[in-house]
Amino acid sequence: MPLNAEGLITFEKEVELLPYKPRPFKQREFLTDAEILANVGGTLFLNVESYPNYFLITFKLHTTNKFIQLECREDKNFNPKFLSWLLHSYRTVGFNSINFDLLIIWLAYRNPEPSILKEAVNDLIINGMRDWQLQKAYNFKTYPINHIDLIEVAPLKGSLKLYGARLHTKSIQEQPFDINADLSDFEIEELKKFNCTQLDITEELFDFMKERIELREAIGNEYHEDLRSKSDAQMAEIVLSKEISKLNGKLVERPEIPEGETYHYHCPQFLNFQTPVLINFLEVCKKAKFKVNSLGYLDAPESIAVMLSVGDMEYSFGIGGLHSKEKCVKYVANETYKLTDRDVTSYYPNAIINLGLYPRACGPNFLTVFKGFKDARVEAKRAKNFTKDKGLKIFLNGTSGKFSDRWSKMRSPQLTMQMNLTCQLSILMLIEMLHLAEFKIVSANTDGVTIYHRRDKQEQLDSIIKLWEQRTGFDTEETLYKIYCARDVNSYFAVKEDGSVKKKGAWAEVGSQSGTKLDMNPQTLICADAIEALLSKGIAIEETIKNCKDFTRFITVRQAKAPGAHWKREYLGRVVRWYYAKGEIGAIHTVATNNKVADSDGAKPCMELPDGIPEDLDYDWYIKRTREILYDIGYLSRPKQIEFF
């Protein structure tokens, strides 16, 4: 965060901000020599900070809330032997550590000069040096240690602070000082405290993903690979490639696919339509040309990115997926009508097998291995071997994403096209069959449909779906809903017959722990809680909102464009967390342009989570917002506007 000579934060398009204000960091304890020796074999979280006149490595011992800090500066003696002993005596865990922290740590072991370390950091971050280039340029080596990097294990590509905000960590803070400036003694002490908060988040993320890491350890032990720092798709590629290489008698190598290579869609025989619109569109798909662009990805022709009408519903079609276009709809099951949802089970894995799709670099043995994993998963589920079941599910679901990854051994962009189009066209075929039988389609996407139908037509519905399953080779699972309220196909509440509620979109929550997820920012989740209680139990929204004692249900998290956001000239950072407060009429703004951060009117930042519910929490704001959602999802009808002439 750049500061000018007066200590004010500055940027190219400058918003004059207040000077850095010390944060209320909690007191930290440091490990004694005896404690370090007593905990050998434990887990240390690590993080580095690099400045021209100062370098810091901080370790945190798991579950103890105690730290070790090693400093490189003029008045401190840096002990490289102790550093090496730590790295080889403990399991270490970091975030983006394999490609950054560990490289700089091993350089510090060789040359603990802050200015040199800072140059190396700039070469990595600014100049884009690869690890081997850095080692050659600075004449150092890295050494194998017991280490886990969490960045790939976590979903998507969030920053550590963003994951911390999604986990409701106590303190969120951006790098407090200009990373290219010399630090004063005061700033060094603040940085040391900041580094400890970073490790607090790393520990929380590690604990949250315990199940994912244990699963990777179990799979790695079975296949003799260290998978602890790998994403789902990376694990799938490593294990599949290893098993395929055994059958092929040679290693699977990444294929070279030239720019401009062109593919056509090969239509499976089971696909056929009965209405002119879809008959003609299938011919369009067959004639379309899909070309590899300069970035190595597949460009889809405009002719297949279309809106299709089947009955009274429109559907958007494209290489990315099929989506119905309903808005603001409400359906309720009763004595006469049912709400039936049918999802295709393991759609992409089954499409790969049914269509005989295999990457060019792997050959047909890919299908032998892939189908073997599918059969083994069925057996694992039958035997209730949950660890193996989850591991094999990762292999099956993670593989298809590698088809379009330009750096993958599985790369075959035509397979992505072939798989995606076939799955969408297959669902369109089911939609058409249901439409011709006069069934009402409530909603549909690539892997399923929701149908509103008379109860006395259940047998006819079952026979149509059975016929579709026989023709395509796919299977479906049925879920019955009591209520379905949707803003659109990707954002809805559906109350199941057992009273549980399925939420999708901004209101959904999925993760290893109830009420928390890593792949989406929390946004006033109390509103979704209130709607869930209303739909499933008939509880008034005001009751749910005013009785909630969990403050994290009221917060919103957003990312602001670099270099971040401010509130009343106080710098907040790129990851911003807030709640809506009584009497608050301002907003949060970006630093670079002073534009308002979306939905931040009436917001009050809470970069440090309070211990309870703030006295100025604006319950009325959340009640009003919940009512707006009820209008959006069709549960309530908006009052008609009176027109004056």
Radius of gyration: 28 Å
Helix-strand category: alpha+beta
Roughly how much helix do the residues carry, as a percent range? 25-40%
N- and C-termini, Cα separation: 56 Å
DSSP E strands, number: 25
Principal-axes shape call: globular
- How would a crystallographer describe the biggest sheet? 7 strands, antiparallel
Q: Hey, roughly how much beta strand do the residues contain?
A: 15-25%
Mean pLDDT: 92
Q: Report the uncertain regions.
A: 1-12, 511-515
What's the helix count?
A: 18
Give the helices and strands, then pairings:
Blueprint: E1 29-30, H1 33-38, E2 43-51, E3 54-61, E4 66-72, H2 80-89, E5 91-94, H3 97-110, H4 114-125, H5 131-138, E6 147-149, H6 160-166, H7 185-208, H8 210-223, H9 232-248, E7 262-264, H10 276-287, E8 289-292, E9 298-299, E10 306-310, E11 313-317, E12 323-324, E13 329-332, E14 337-344, H11 347-354, H12 365-382, H13 386-402, H14 413-436, E15 440-445, E16 448-454, H15 458-472, E17 476-488, E18 491-496, E19 501-504, H16 525-537, H17 541-547, E20 556-559, E21 565-567, E22 570-573, E23 575-580, E24 589-590, E25 603-605, H18 619-632
Helix pairs in contact: 3-4, 6-7, 8-13, 9-12, 9-13, 11-14, 12-13, 14-15, 16-17, 16-18, 17-18
Question: Would you kindly provide a written description of the structure presented here, covering whatever features stand out?
Answer:
The chain is 37% helix and 19% strand. With 645 residues, the chain is of the alpha+beta class. Strands 13, 14, 15, 16, 17, 18 and 19 form a seven-stranded antiparallel β-sheet that branches. Strands 1-4-3-2-5-6 form a six-stranded mixed β-sheet, sandwiched between helices. Helix 6 packs across helix 7, helix 11 crosses helix 14 and helix 14 runs antiparallel to helix 15. The two termini are 56 Å apart. 37% of the residues are buried. The N terminus is likely disordered.
